[in-house]
Amino acid sequence: MSVSTAAGRMEAWSFPPRIDASYIPPNDQRYWHPVRETMPPDERDAAIAVRLREVMRHAYKSSAFYKKKWDDAGIDPESIRSLEDFERVPVVTKAELRASQAAHEPYGDYLCVPESEIHHIHGTSGTTGKPTAFAIGRNDWQTIGENHARILWGMGFRPGDTIFFGAIFSLYLGSWGAMSGAERMKARSFPFGAGAQGMTARAAQWLAMVKPAGFYGTPSYALRLAEVAREEGYDPRAFGLRTLFFSGEPGASIPSVRDRIENEFGARVIDTGTMAEMTPFMSAAGSAESHEGMLLWQDMVYHEVCDPATYARVPYGEQGTPVYTHLERTSQPMIRLLSNDLTHWVMEENPCGRTYPRLPKGVHGRIDDMFQIRGENVYPSEIDNVCNAIAGYGGEHRIHISRAQTMDELLVRAEYDATVAAGGDAAIAAFRRTLGDQLRKVLGVGANVEPVPPNTYERTDFKARRVVDDRDLYGQVYQSTHPH
Ligand code: 8LQ
Q1: What Pfam families does the record point to (predicted)?
Q2: Could you tell me the distance, in angstroms and rounded to a whole number, from the CA of residue 61 to the centre of ligand 1?
Q3: Position with higher pLDDT, 371 vs 252
């Protein structure tokens, strides 16, 4: 089948996108866009190759950033005829975006629409350094709503369902982006938010009253909410939630964390999320029937999993770093944005029938967060998985990496729960032993374990930061005591 026929068969798929804002599938239809979601992958790939060229053409003619970048690399958008050709396009780093915004305040020279078309401004939520601004065009906001509606539909949401947004509503694109999809599909949105003092207890009160079908937030916050709800006398299972969907950090695809959340709420957990720059960031997301890991909805954002050294795609089954390309954004289109995260991808039959590749274990974490202990690569998310699977775990922990002599050392400080506390020294020693044994088994190296009492560590309304890296401190001390 020729590319144009394949593309022609895809529901309203063009660049820039043309959206029928009145379209909503019948409730019993599994797919929002049956053709786009279930077509043979090679036909979709052929259509994606056409779309990539169109997006590149748009970016090349409307942004100095891309023009210079590609001219310097000797890349002509017209020469990109296949997915293999596309792998020659240099990746975009977040540092380049920051530099572009510093030189061309506030949106950078990769804003590819006139400023008058900007509909929403958001930004990075980091508290250190200069923020990055996200400018989203009016048409793009509509497309984002459309894309997220498709994905929420795939998760099993339908018009009239209430979805509770328990995440920060300000700079953070997560809450707004997810809600745009709920609004588009005529669900009932409850933009409750998060982050203000006393808000978690009130969230429990409202959830008990409104009994929504869906909850959106971060996995860390859902666990905190369950704790606070119990303290306030609510049973989180009585909220009647059907599905909690999460973005922002690993967790929803960490088996023991997912199980803990599912047990707390008596509801299904679905993982989603790429990067704020990539909004529609839910383009990687689980579906109702394929709820483990994340499907890569390739026709809205083209996801490549690449070798972190060469940025060429790795074969299915292998590990690499996600590189993302917008196929339906015109305002600040990201073309080969490097995530620096780590994942592995597969191409298998999905229980939901969608023909997308999948990240069976979600995104494992950031490459920077990975550390080496005696030659073994260790991810914080593996430690999270072990802790959450241990009976008597109190809900939070910290991972300390330090350097003793020339070797890195790992110390896990983990809270035990009230039951262990009531058991006294013997129970605490048993908890320490079990956790130590499990860590050695899973990580392949020994870790020091220090049990700490319940509620030692602060909980978060947003993304957890559990790694305390003392090696820099060691480095500074080392350098000051070993002058050149
Ligand atoms: N990150 C985001 N989602 C993740 C997931 N599901 N699993 C593992 N790591 C994940 C607005 C959305 O929540 C996306 C988002 O959080 O965007 P940010 O704030 O730009 O942060 C992006 C980073 O969060 C990713 O690179 C992952 O490291 C992590």
Answers
A1: AMP-binding_C_2 (PF14535)
A2: 30
A3: 252
